[in-house]
Amino acid sequence: QVQLVESGGGLVQPGGSLRLSCAASGSILSINAMGWYRQGPGKQREFVASITSRGATTYAGSVKGRFTISRDNAKNTMYLQMNSLKPEDTAVYSCNADINRQDWGGTLNYWGQGTQVTVSS
Prior knowledge:
Distance between the termini: 40 Å
Largest sheet: 7 strands, mixed
Structural class: mainly beta
Order of helices and strands: EEEEEEEEEEE
Shape: elongated
Radius of gyration: 14 Å
């Protein structure tokens, strides 16, 4: 079994902060790139940020300078620190990862169940 579980979502006022976590578990040899995506009401899912196994990061223009992505390879966990939140950041945030399986040696792409972030006054 391999799974990704997000946590840390909630309700916050504009200008506030939240820290999301994504924990991977199961038959894992290693994890390649990981990333965060989001889907707001009536919108398509969009890319937010990604990070390679060595720590190189990429951000969507809408969040650059406000969000910070990081990872702890020893814990198979990824984080998204979100500051200066805006109402347009309201969405379900999902974790995505390319995972090298320890049991059969292949690589698969996985999604977490998502965590709700609501920015409102």
